[in-house]
Specification:
The structure is a homooctamer.
Chain A: H1 3-21, E1 24-30, H2 34-45, E2 50-53, E3 72-76, H3 80-86, E4 91-93, E5 96-100, H4 101-114, E6 118-120, E7 123-131, E8 134-142, H5 143-147, E9 155-164, H6 171-179, E10 194-196, H7 198-207, E11 211-213, E12 216-218, H8 221-227, E13 230-231, H9 237-251
Parallel strand pairs in A: 1-2, 1-9, 2-6, 9-12, 10-13
Antiparallel strand pairs in A: 3-5, 4-5, 7-8, 8-9, 11-12
């Protein structure tokens, strides 16, 4: 056997084993941005089986670009401990903390994998699995299949709880609204993100982090978008706290 | 001042200060893939001022996708110590080591930033600065300007040494060949990557890691591409060792 | 330091200082067409702090192309004094005035900058900042980020009053209608531009130049579009008068 | 375990086993058009291990559309026995045979799989594996990765002999010419397809079916294109005979 | 006459005769995926005149890619006899059967043509023909005309019964809903596919296989999509049984 | 003066004179397909001033391609005299007449110009001019401005009566519905074209040829689309008769 | 049979008969612009069998748009008789003649069809048929197949003489240069159009109208482009005379 | 006549008169960036007839965006007087001058029009007019025609001298090199821009401002690109001086 064949075999076998091992998990997360990664870490740390699926080739979502491509993020005091837990360096500035957005993304990913979460990229969640009135997992496909416009059927992953962490696009909630039934919101529908009000949004994003349909939790920007709260602007404290809260809420039920 | 204004101010001031502080560095690196990140770490660790520029929103280059989107990489024994230095978990398998490609990317980025390198995203190196026969820095632009097809002039960064780490595209070497002069290759031109021969390629990538034009070093896949060596396949040992070697060679001259 | 580094430093520092100085203004204007530029001039002339944001690389909006790319504009007698104040040459013709559309654009821009307004290009207003029931500023991003389809968070600018001057696209009003609340129109919604009736439209555009939501004024073609008046055709008198009126109305409240 | 999980597991395990079993084959074929499929059948029938890779989602290549989307093909007397062996119905017409192009494609695929060849779709051959002067296999990637413009490394398949059957595009030969060395043609390069001369082309396509570089055979339209013979037009006899001949030539050496 | 002219003549005459012979059929089928092909076979086997139109160059629809491009399909015990009738090899696995998705497609097409159905590719059904309250045929065009964005009028095919087998896109039913009248569904409209529940979906797809408007039957995934049942996932038993059932129902009326 | 300058001058002066002469006409027609051209001929023949505007570079609309790119049209007996009047050759076939679609287009254009109508290409009708409750002309722009996505203001043409002859797209009626007011249809809105029923459609297209809003007539396929009648298929008799009728109706009022 | 079926049958049968009748002609012309149409007319008038193929849906080529979309053409005195023969109205102006470009196109097409030439649209000439050293016909495909990027084989048409009349693109000559052999030009290759010199170009276009390869004549702008003469500008006299000359030269040999 | 008709008439007549008046000028300039505008001003100021053609809707070229979208430009001491002559405000900074890039563009345009130059937008120079060995003018087309991909012939403008001021694209020189003959450069060809060296480039751009082919001068970035000098970076002094020099050189010959 040539060296290349040995390498190829190793890659396919390891990756396939990891994917097959994740067909049946405690928690499945859609979206690899900050809140999804934080939820993954805190859940996996408690020995829960966690699989996270990101549509893009790279994880990290909207945090890479800081604000307007200025690669810095700002975090409030309350969320500073989370930065510390992930080893993200920060600098105090008038009661808030600034950090390098690129470093922050890298360490959120590293923290989640070190805790034992399984992260998958290039995979989109195109639908959910449903039994009577509970969501039981995700319907997955390669995101490249979608980009290429090919007609190829999806596969599935089964989970005790699912988390919507796709941010503004609300990819899972939109499917649920269209194909499953009423969401746990005032109107039973996606309320839609409101204009920017950083202070109010930061507070509400934690409040709105909850079960939005039996079996499906919502976290991060998706939480405010589905419950009709304002958008947050380039401040990430609420996002981090929301990721932690969704983990705690689900841990309490597992 | 509203909260949002405070946040905006913090982000612009911190990021601009970091960028202005990088206008004049010891080493400028084009390309945020594995070899560029490794070079950045080993140079910065020795207190050299390092700035790395990546065209995409996310760093990590071709390592995110493992092989054919199976998110695993393989590394040979010789490069295992580098994995360890970055804290990347690996698994022994018939004398080689496999690792999760997503974790690997994240920890390469984290390692480089922790060592003190400055990493910038969304910026492309569109040309070099030249004085007589030495390259003295990069000519930069937002990569979004290029995508949008706008006609906007670039700015510059000055460096004692530059590193071409853009992989297959050879973005810097192509400019040098077209606009500056003869490269330090057998024909004076880019020789072009050869077909795959993993074993030979892995050995040659380290040999080919050298100064390709006064002031410009080449590392990683770019090294084999410019010197006409075979491509490597989804094994990353040579890539990692090449990143370390380019750092050592430049350190010896600084 | 090389010459290029000096130049780069000068450009970044000057531009950043100008932008930071504009984070907190009296009036923020969305859209760099004729009415926005005229409003900018008359406000800045009275020593108000004004920042104008244009999505395109060039300012001037729909005036560059005259009518059907015939580069001439027509202005009625009532608006002739505004042409004069900006130094735009014109020619009498049956009681109206014709001018070179390219000259007109250039002098509107020159007039606004000479009056002290700060003009920014390549920046789009993607949302507004809100506090209870008042709009307090714009949420900004590079328009190239949008064109490139990147997921990058915006930054913000704070203003005592905001002006919607984006013309037909009504970029700000559409956001307000969707994410904030009822507009000050008969139906509470955008009424939509009606078919062409130059005479009526010219009269109405000045009438419709008013506050459309607390903190947000509307001017130029946007005024007729939001209040359901006819479109104007390639005559610019009403546009110019509307730009002047919005400035006067806001000056009265500052 | 939910039903869907059982199905997902079955699909991944079966497919992965089939792919891993094909990492090391007697013959690897690039291109799933008529000549590749016929070669696959005659090789597999003799108990050779054969893997065929097609870039598109569907196999069959240029035969689906007959001529100008009139879904009929024409085959000469000499190739009639091959139609029979695959069970393709045909109709005599002035010494030639016409068949339904859609039926023909389906039965070529069915024949190859029934003989035991492994057919893979959505996979492109982007390079070859080389050892000194022999081609030892293909470098593969998902074709959707290429369409999506992602930077993802390939994997490999090892083969005693490789067949270029990609037709006009000559995807493998172009790589060999650029990255490996001289082809076994008069000029050492791809000679390029000549204009149409059906009679001559039909004769030459069988003659040109041979080893074009150590380890690499060429068949079908690719044979004429690489050796500078005329193109054939919508007649498929030579194509079928060429597919059979390449199988026989390789069988003689295995 | 040159050889090429003879070939050209043969192709045009044979294909045109086949098309003209199909202008007036017992059953016209829109969509060349599994359920359409199976319906075609069982109808043609009973000597009914059948014409099937597929928009793509290749027939087979969503079955080529198995699940997530893993080229395997799964079929339940009840549908195993259909696999057998088409000669598709399968493997038992925990009470279900797996098959190679590429082989399966090829043999479904081969089976339909062997039974005497006429299959046409590159043709889209853009509308229906209507007389009072019955659908009497399809309005056809080259799908390349649509892709090229040309304004070219369609032609028509007349049929006693029509079958909608276009799957998720519901191309025929959408036209009927918009341009003809109420469908035979609870709301009179397309109910829309629900989220995945393989077991329930498999049962319902057979139930939902029925006449949805006078003269128009629905089969396969289209049946569940129009009647608001769940989607099936990468299991094809129900699809196959639905194709058989629609044939039987129509045969009962012919 | 060089020859080229003389030619350039001639072209601009002649064309501009023709356009200026058409700013003020009896009848303005939107759309250069068969019914528009026929209306133009019969109106111009009676010495009415007629200007017709076509968005494409070429006139002729959907008639060029016959049916499915088979370049033949069919016309019923009643419309045969119109073919004759334009000098279009035809062939009797079972009580209908076939003609070459390319010849037919050319002669419709030639007939309209010979009668004195002014035809303009590359110009789109993007809006109407309105006074109280009557449409008084078209708002025009170069269609290339629209394709290029430029923001350039339109110009106008004034007419006693306007004709909508844009076929399926209903470009004028859609603007009127959105921006002007109620149409003269059962619902006051565009009813939308129904599925194909050639016989009924042919009869109705003449009936539906009438004033749809004060000052605006509708003819050809647009007539059936706006009044909710079936589409016609590749038969052109009704189209031709509709073009003649709209001319007669308007002549009666001029 | 429904009416629609009768119409469909008529269209397919008439068109197919016309196409089959043209498989074997005296002269085949590539390109439906002015010189191709004129050649078609003068050849067909002498009872030669002529088939002309145009890639676009509409014939007329570059004449529709006059100069810079000003729809007027200019013709010199020498070519005035040709305008007359086609019945194109013109106006004297300083020794030259102006005509409406739209009328001119229509009447050139009408003239060619009236003379008996068969004109086909939506068909591109993608190659030639060759026997030893003579071109014997064209290799044709639907141009929509090319636009749609489908892989579909072409068909052919046989001709005693072929004419390249595709203008600037030189579609046939480029194929001949690449795939057949040396052209009858000074360098044996396409010389390339030179910059504009109307007077010289007008004279040369007639001189350059000749056989460029055995069996292939060149006419119109293509003649100057292949022989390296200047381009003509928006004057059409030489074009018309060239079309007439190519007809006369071929007539002399038939 | 309606108001709109009066406006339309005024716009067309004024613009057409201006264009016709420019068919025959002293100097024609291709490109509306800084050096073209400056040349236009200094030529027109001396009562020369000047026409400038810009491909885009807006003039100003690469100056709008400053450097990397930071809207500031830098100018050296030697060019400061030019800023003053145009009334562009500037600020001293370490021996150089910074200015607002948006203001600078506007005032360059205003200065050129005030001097009497005629500026045209949306027009591209696609070729030159040639007589023996002298360039005598430009071949023009709407740039929207090019963007729309339409085949429409150009018109022309005659000039005693022409200026290439299109910057990096060298639109005129590329045509001359390909279609006319040898340029006045060391190799007779375009030498190509070299990498950045601001100091050297600034000096050379003035030296390279000269006649590059009889009748054609080159200025601005185009001068360095054609003569193989380095690029300049975001400093505009040389650009401004080059524009002034080309005017002076041509004035000396008029």
């Amino acid at each position: 056997m040539l060296d290349e064949t040995k390498i190829t075999k190793a890659i396919i076998e390891e990756s396939t084993a990891r994917f097959l091992d994740s067909l049946h998990v405690d928690v499945a997360i859609a979206g690899g941005g900050p809140s999804g990664l934080i939820a993954a870490k805190y859940l996996a740390e408690q020995n829960k089986k966690v699989a996270l699926f990101e549509r893009k080739l790279s994880l990290g979502g909207g945090m890479w670009g800081g604000g307007m491509m200025y690669p810095t993020i700002v975090v409030q005091e309350e969320a500073k401990p989370i930065l510390n837990e992930f080893g993200i360096k920060s600098k105090e500035r008038e009661g808030q903390y600034t950090a390098d957005s690129i470093e922050a993304v890298a360490k959120l990913i590293a923290g989640a994998t070190d805790a034992g979460a399984k992260l998958f990229n290039c995979i989109s969640v195109e639908d959910v699995m449903i039994r009577e009135n509970k969501i039981n997992g995700f319907v997955l496909n390669w995101s490249t299949v979608d980009i290429a416009g090919l007609h190829v059927d999806p596969l599935t992953i089964e989970a005790k709880y699912c988390i919507e962490a796709t941010g503004h696009p609300l990819e899972v909630c939109k499917v649920v609204q269209r194909k499953v039934g009423k969401l746990n919101t005032p109107t039973g529908k996606i309320e839609g993100e409101k204009s920017m009000w950083a202070g109010k949004a930061e507070r509400l994003v934690v409040e709105n982090t909850k079960e939005v349909y039996p079996g499906l939790y919502v976290t991060g920007m998706a939480a405010n978008a589905v419950f009709g709260a304002p958008r947050m602007g380039p401040i990430f404290g609420g996002m981090l706290l929301s990721g932690k809260k969704v983990a705690e809420d689900i841990l309490a039920r597992l």
